[in-house]
Each structure stands twice: as structure tokens, then as C-alpha cells.
Amino acid sequence: MFNNTITKCVGSICRKSALGIAAIALLFMTDTGNAAAFQDSEMKQNGTELPGLIAYQTDANNQTLISFEVSNVTLARALHLLAEQLNVGLSYNPQTMPFQLVSISRSNTSVYEILYELLDGTNLEPTVPPSWDVIVIREKDAELTEDFYQDTIRGTVVDSRTGEGIPGVTVMIFGTQLGTATDMNGDYQINLQTREDILVFSAIGYTSVQIAVGDQDVINVELREDTVILDDLIITGYTRQRRADVSTAISSVPNVSEQLNRPITNFEDLLQGTVPGVTVIREGGDPTRESNVIIRGQGTLGSTAPLWVIDGVPYSGPSPNPRDIESIEILKDAAAAAIYGARASSGVILVTTRRGQSPTPRVELDYMRGYQQAVNLPEALTAPEYQSAQTNAHLHAGDPPPAGHNPLLNPWGSVQRTNWMDEVFRTAEYDNMNMRVSGQYSNLNYMTSFGYQGENGVLRNTFNQRLSWRLKTDFDVNDRLSLGQNFYINHRENRGTNTTSDFSGIITSAIFMNPAAPVYDPVTEFHGSVPFELSQFAGAYGDVYNPVALLERDNDKRENLSINANVYGRVNLLENLSFRSTFNILWRENSIKAFSPIRQEIGRSTPENVLTHDESRDFNWMWDQQIDYIQDFGPHSIAVTGVYSADYRSNEFFSVNFRGFENESDFFRYISNAGDTSRPGSGGAWEDIMLSVVGIVNYSFDDRYFIGGSIRRDVSSRLPEGNRSDIFPSLSGAWKISSERFFDVDMIDMLKVRFSWGEIGNINSVSRTAFASPLSRTLSQIGEPAQRPLAFFANEVANPNLQWERTETYNAGIDLHMLRDRVIFTAEYYEKFTRGVILRNAPNTHQGMGNGPLINAGDVSNKGIEFSATYRGQVGQLAYSLGGNFSKNNNELITFGNYDADVIRHGDSVRGVLFPFQSEPGQALRSYYLIPSSGIFQSQAEIDSYVGPDGARIQPNARPGDLRFVDTNGDGRITSADKVYMGSAIPDVTYGFSVYLNYRDFDFSTFLQGVSGNKNFFGYKYNAYQAAIQPYNMDRKALNAWSPENTNTNIPVMSTQDPNANYGTESDWYLYDASYLRIRNMTLGYTVPQSILTRVGPRVTARVYASVDNLHTFTSYPGIDPEIGDRIDSAFYPQGRTFVFGINLGF
Fold first, then answer.
1. Rounded to a whole number, what is the distance in angstroms from the first to the last CA of the chain?
2. 210 and 288 share one domain
3. What confidence score (pLDDT) does residue 67 get?
4. Are residues 114 and 174 both part of a single domain?
């Protein structure tokens, strides 16, 4: 009964269709025709929507080679068995299917050949949509009717070399989901929407071709073989290689286009958690700050910033517009990065920007609107709690409470008037708009883009705005000559604020500020002045500034304008020999204007205003001359590249500050309005140049063995004569085991092992005057009346023997592709040694100079492992992609060499009291060096029993409720000698996970990122938990301080005196595990169906989406945010949770 119903339905549909191929297919059919399941779906074939079925998970494509054998079965049964083996659906009209028995036995044969052999002698032919999710069997020469088509294009697609037709070529209408595929002879026919349509011809192993239809009725196409598509081509520096041929440590950032669907503020956000071995550290959520990127560990005490190379040109300007980016490659080992010499000691980030693809102009608009909120903020005590806490703190110290904290004497101070955290934070708006126009015209390829980003910070009056414009063109003058240019201009304007200071940081001040004080003076209606009621008790409330006044009245405005332009010319001298010349200019101007007004605060005032104005200008030009030779000799392939590069840089800067402005409004904050202009400014200028010669050779044999090498000689004016030049070589090799004749594992597509070694230099830490003694003018006043004489002094000791830092790396890796590239796995092991680390030695006071010389002193080691894996699959109409990466790095300072000290005590501190960081051989750089603690003394008996070898109390000043410190050296005292190393702020483990799902017109993605093995020094506790430094307000957690009634706590007793130095001891009481796992992003999108958009225009596309950033962070860290870098946490600017709604339009 069921079968008859299907047959009648199919027959009815077929009789109504001029094509005669629309059919309802079965998910599974037995020999008797019984259906196991039935489901409706839609497919598009030949430009027409047809009812059909996707019966199985898609595994096939037009190049799939299979083995297939059946004997004496019906044709219908054979087709079902073939579809089942391929894991695809099958659709046909039972009324046109002949009842005949067939037999076939084929191995390593294309799917199309098997289909045509099965259908030989019938009036049927196969056709497959571009998605290759179903095989449709239709009648030959079916007539087209105007019910479905108005215009039809026919043609043949052939191989340009052999002239033979290519079966299975995908023919699509650009910007739509409408398409078809060529038959066994390479013939096709497709219906048009309009004569303005563009046809896209693509096939695996061939270069895609796009052709505008216009008035043509027949379009014949020649496709050229393209090995790039057979295996992705990636940029490896000055050259390009197939990914399968790469023998060095190069990683690609996955799913760049998908990541751009979330609110990416800075380029570095694309790297965080997506590439193993790359650590991105965001120091809070300040919109004016860019992230720090560390590749494979910290190898120096100087700059660890990697080299950016954009479209083949080294770049040192502000972060480019992320929406311009097409792909990103990371060169992680010296063998890969050595071709960039001294600039690449910390790794290289290669960025390729978008270019035109459509034969006609294509306009794309992206807009997103978002809202950001701060989360996990600290809470301050209310006014009554504040008075009570301060009273108890004085009583615990044995002191009488001041009148200001007595609610009977000061009832005004017990009234809660202001929640200062609510006053300084806000819900911030986020806007991002980008427009691109791209295309191809004759031999011209062009792309221009405009971008605007407006990001308000979650702290009041902080923001970041960016405007950018890019114009990129490539022009093939003829077969021998190509010209191109890339012009980029970027303007940034932002206003930040101080959140890191433990004296006047905004968040710290919001906690400190008296909750009884109003934001504005009730009499003058002006914030920052002192209400009369509060002024009577000013000394009881500390020297804190009004944080709202700081945000509203202070001004720290920064502007940056950068212009980057490069042009190139490429000439094919011979068939395999080419020459390219590239000239690049980068000009950058930075301006900082900071104005601090007069303040009248509760316990702190600033009687004079001041304007500080800093300006700097950078200019850089670079000229590269490159020659390339590529030749194949049978199974041998060789590529040789030679480069000569000249890189010039200059800078000039000045800084001035003036005081005494009578009018403090924005319109008068200029130098000419200052009352006091007697203070001298400072300034200077420098320039340097680097000349380089590079040679690169890559050789491969029979797609099995690969050898690469490079050698680079750099000459830098920064180093003293005699040490200015050095040579940096590299060598790498790979063995593609899967290409060996003995390797026959069907499920493995590629298996490759690779090894590399290389050396690279570094002078990023070297000043332009390191080998000389620069002179500075003295600002000292002498005589009566006081005068500043024209006098100079040498402020730095020269080192004529200074040399390059050298980084040597060893790398071993394995690349595995399985199940038709559904599974891709990579594993790496590396060792990275930096020798001759440049440090500034201790000054020699006898020479009368404040700074010692720069010397080559330290050796640093980084060793680690990296893993990454992706899996792509499809179940019915649900396509999915899963990805993950993991890396672990071990950092160690090996030796100080001839450095004059045994350790380096780093200057980061909490109020100049706590200095937690120290570097010493045998430990990681910038390790924590602290005294261990072991809980809180609960009684005087515990204090008395904690004695040293001589029987004396180890902590004689302790009281019940004080911290107990560990006497690690057993000398009976708590001193700096009891300090031990307790880990590092830099994580040794980083990881990330991503999920991408597509179902019909919906897409969903989520991205998780985390770190482990790092610790944070929570210096905020020194300010916000302690009652002894000033009578500030405190964090609500301070209420959990020890008392006889509250002994189950780790917070010491609240007291205005601290004889035990609970807060003043550099101990692990401040140290916390800062590991975290963060749901970095979650996005849901919907692509508007083409059937709707065709009413608007033939090539219109639209997608809407909603996204949330920083959805949740899993961590045990008690601070606002564990992600602060290797800094002391004094209440950093928090990363907000951002909700975004966006739309992508194309036409």
C-alpha cells in the first residue's frame, strides 16, 4: 500500500514537471521496494528547486575513487547500493527506471564512470548538486519549460592541457546556492536568474574561473590545473609552500571568517586560544590597551612582541582592522622565522588581507551593535558598616575611635549616600561598521574597505574610536609584468584612565571613598569639592580622590595616525625565473594630552593644575629586492629565493608640561593659556638602519622527501662597529610517509614527520646609543637667584663590545590527515635557547652615571609540546566542525653569565612595600619570591609555642588573629631569607576549544579558551582589606576578618596597627592560582534564504546574528579577572560581558 502511494505521488509530480526528474526518494529501500524511512527535504539542481531527499551523511565528491562490485541485481538496486556505499542520497522517477539486471566490477574508479557504465544503454543520466549530498537520475534531453526557466546557458568545461571534458565540475551562480555539475563529457546547462549573473566554475585540482554571462548563450570554459587547491598554499615568509610540503613549525589561525562574526576589537583577539604555543595576555578590559602576544615562551627580559608582516611587508603600526584580514599564519620556530632575521626573534605573524574575487563589483556591509557590562565587581562597605569597621579596628589596636567614625558625634557620616562602584561603572555601547567593495576588471583586481569602530569603556568617560581605510590593487600588465599597491590609513582616538595605581586608581578609589559622601557638593553642585559636613572630619577618611571627579574632569586623551603604503612590481624574466621589487613607507604620529585639574578633596588636595603634552613621530621605509627560481625535473622540484633588504627607521619626540591655567574648560587646555611656562621640556631623536641579505632553498623529491634551508646576514647600526653584522642559518626536513609505496592505509590521507633547526638574532632591547655615552642636559638650579645653567652629563655607560642576542631552536613535528581530511592532527616538540640575553648591568657609582651598560649576560631556555586537532563531519543537513589545541611550555633562566648580581629584583610593587617578582638562574623569568604562610594564630598559646632553636618566639609581635609565617631556613626568625620561589605569572599551559554547527540556514559557534599553571599576586588586598594604612573604606570581604567569634577565615584581624606585618610581609597570602576556563564567545546566526533575497536582487546575501563575549569564566581566583598578565593585581580595568547583534549584507 505504502509503495503504491509513493508511486502514484511520484508519477503525479513527474507528469507536472517538464524536467521529469523531481522525485521523492527513500532513505533506504529493500529489493521489494519497502521503505524503511521517509523524510522531506529540498535540494537545488540545475537552478530549480526539486523535491528530494538527503538520505545519508555526505562523504563523496566528483574526484572520489572507489571500488564497486555487484552481480545480477536490478539497476535500481545497484544504484541504491552505490549510494549507500558513498553515504549519499538517491533520487529518481520509478516510472522511467527500466527493469534490467546489471553487473559491474571496478576498483579505483571515479563515481561518474561507474554511474555512466551502470546507465549505459538507457535513456537516463546522472547529475549531482554542488553539495554532493544526493545523486539524481534523470532522463536525457529533458525539455525545459518557461514555468521554470527564462534563460539557459549551456557549454562544455575542458582541461586546458589535454582538451578533454572534465566531469563533475561545479557550476554555480555567484552569490547564490543555485548550481549544477558537468556530466561525463564535461557538458552542463544551467538556468539564469538574470543576464547579470556570474558563473563560477570550480573543481578539485583546478583553478576556479568566474565569467559574467552578459549576452552569451554558450559559455565554454578551460580550467587549468592548480596544485594549490590539491593542498592549501600557505605563506611561509618571502615564499609560499603547499601545506603538505612545509617542514618547519608554521600554524594557521583556523576559521578566521567565522571568528569575525563576534565583536573582535583588536587583531590579537583572533589569536587567543586558537593556535597552540601562542599566549595572548589581555591586561584587563581597558579599550585603549592592546594585548601582549608571546610565542613559545618568554626568551628575553626585553620586548617579547612578535614581528607582524602584512601582505609580505614588516609592519610596526597599530593593530590593523580585523575585518580586512583573510588569513593568518604563525612562524613559531627559528627555521621558519630566520628569513626575517633580528626582527623575528620572538616569532612572526603573517597576515594576508582580502582581495577582489568577483568579476563584477561586490559590495559587502557588516554592522554590529553591542552593549558591554562589567561583571564580578568588588563591593565596598556601606556607610554604617564603614563606621562600625573603623571603630572595631581602632578598638582591636587599643586606640580610641576618632569622632568622625562615631555615629553619635557624626550622624551625617552614618548615612549611605553613594555607591561609588555604581557611579564609576556603566553599561557601555559598542558599534562596528565595515564596508568593502571588491572585484575584478579585466586584468585589475581591487579591494577597498572602510572601517569604523566605536567602543565605550565600562568605566565612565573612557572610549576608543578607530577609523581605517584600505585600498589594495593588483594589475597584470601582461603575461610578464604585474604591478600592485596596498595603501592603509588608520586613525585612533581614545581616552583611558588609571586603574593600576594602588594610590589613585579608579577602582581602588571607588572602594576607598567614603560612602556617606555625595558625588557632588550639595552647595556648589560641583564634584570634587568638600562638603562642609565632611570637612569637619576630613582626617578620618584618608587621602583619596573622588573617582567620579577623576573620570569627568581629568583628561588623558591619545591620538594616533598611521599611514602605510607599499608598491610592488613583479617581472617574469624567464619561464621559471621572476624578480620582484617592493617599496614600503610607514609614517606614524602619536599625541598624548593629559590634563590634571585643581582638586579639593576630603583628605587630599591638588592646589595646581597641569597640562602634559607628548608628541612623537616615526618614519620607516623598507625596500626589498627579491628573485625567485622554480623548476621541476621529473620527480625533483626546487625553489630558490634571494632577497636584499634595506630598512630605515627614524623617530623624534618631545614632552612638555605647563601649569597655572585660570580656566580649566576643554577649550582652554592648551599651552598658550598656561600661567607658568618656565619649566623646560624634553625631547630627542634617533635613526637606525638595517641591511640584510637572505637566501632560501626548498627541495622536494617525488612528493616524499623535503629539505629546506635559509641563511641570512643582518647588519645593524644599533650595535658597535665590529659586532654590527651576524649570520643566522636554518635547516629543515620532512618525510611524507603516506606517499611511500609501502604505505597503504585507506583511512590516512597524509602522514608526515618533520624536523627543523635554526638560529635567529635579536636587538629589540638595544637602545640606539648603547655603544656610546649619550649626554643629557641637567635641570638642576644653582645660585641666587636660582638659575638653570647650560650643562650636560653622561647618563649611561657605553659598551663597545655589545653583541646580538641569539635564539636557537630545535623542532620536531608530526602532521596527520585522516578520513578524507575530516580529521587533522598536529603535534610538536620544541626546545628554544636564547643566549647572550641583553641586560642592563648595575651602575658604577664611582663613574657618576645613573645607568649601567647594556651587556650580553643571560641564557634562557623554553621547552614545550603542542597539540592541535580538528574534526569535520555531517549528519543529514547538520554540518559540524570541532577543534581543540593544547600547549605546555617550561621556562627557565639558565645563567646570568657576567652579570654583576646573582638575582634581578623587579621593580613592580604594591605602594613601594611589596616587591613579589625576582629572576634567578634555575627559575622561570619573573618568578614569585615570597615567604610561605600557614594559616592564622588562633590563640596566644599557639604564638608562644611557635619557637626557634633558641626557644624564643619566632613571631614575637604576633597576636591571635595574625598570620603565621613559615621559618623555612630554621633560624628562628622571619626574614627575607625565608623566601622561596612559588611559580610564575605566565601560564605554562594554554588551550582552546571551538565548535561550529550549520543546519539549513542556521549557524552556531562557541569558543572556549583557558590557561593553567600561572598565579596572580592579589595586591588589591593590601589596600582594600587593611585598616592600618589609612582610614579608607574597605572591601566587603574585610568583614570576614578574624575575630574570636569568627575563627574559620584566612583574613587576619582588622586593626589600625599591624605589628606582625600581616600586610607588609611579602608572603604567599597574596598569591592565588589564576587558572581559568572562559566561554570566550557564543554566536547564533541565520542566513536569509536565497528564495527570499532574489526578490530584492540576483546576488543579494544577508545574514543576521546575535553574539555574546565573555559569557562566563570558571576560576577560583578572588579578583575581578584572572587575566592580567605578569602584573600585580591592584584592581585592573575589568573585561566586560558584551552582547552584540549584527548583520552581514552583500550585493
1. 50
2. no
3. 80
4. no
**Residue 24 binned pLDDT confidence (cut-offs 50, 70, 90):** very low
> For position 14, what pLDDT does the model report?
36
Return d(Cα 846, Cα 15) in angstroms, integer: 105
β strands within 496-576, DSSP E: 555-574
CB 725 within 8 A of CB 690: no
Q: What is the pLDDT of residue 502?
A: 72
* Residue 1093 domain flag: no
Q: Which of 81-85, 289-293, 539-543, 617-621 has the highest mean pLDDT?
A: 617-621
Whether the pLDDT of residue 130 is over 90: the answer is no
Block residue for cell numbers 563531519: 873
pLDDT value for 39 = 29
Beta bridge partners of 714: 692, 726
CA distance 624 to 642: 10
**Alpha-carbon span 1147 to 362, nearest angstrom:** 6
At 1069 the three-state DSSP class reads: helix
Q: What is the mean pLDDT of residues 362-368?
A: 92
Q: How far apart are CA 330 and CA 647, in angstroms?
A: 22
Sign of the C-alpha dihedral computed for residues 523, 526, 531 and 532 taken in this order: negative
CA pair distance 936, 1048, nearest whole angstrom: 9
- DSSP 8-state symbol, 305: P
Q: Are residues 197 and 314 in the same domain?
A: no
The 10 Å Cβ neighbour count of residue 902 is: 8
What is the per-residue pLDDT across 352-364, written as a single tens digit (0 to 9) for each?
A: 888 887 777 889 9
Last residue of a domain, one of 162, 197, 228: 228
Is 75 in a helix, a strand, or coil? helix
Cell numbers representing residue 553 in the block = 574632569
246 Cβ contact partners less than 8 Å away, ≥ 6 residues apart: 234, 236, 734, 754
**Residue 262, Cβ neighbours under 10 Å: how many?**
23
Domain count, the chain: 5
Q: Answer whether residue 902 shows pLDDT above 70.
A: yes
* Least confident interval from 53-67, 769-783, 1078-1092: 53-67
Which parts of 457-550 are beta strand (E)? 463-476, 481-495
Least reliable range by pLDDT among 250-264, 908-922, 975-989, 1074-1088: 250-264
For residue 953, what are the domain limits? Answer: 933-978
Please report whether residue 954 resides in a domain.
Answer: yes
Same-domain pairing of 346 and 255? yes
How many residues are present in the chain? Answer: 1147
Report the distance separating Cα 1074 and Cα 171, nearest Å: 53
- CA torsion 111-115-117-123 (nearest 10°) is -160
Decide if 919 contacts 906 (C-beta within 8 A). Answer: yes
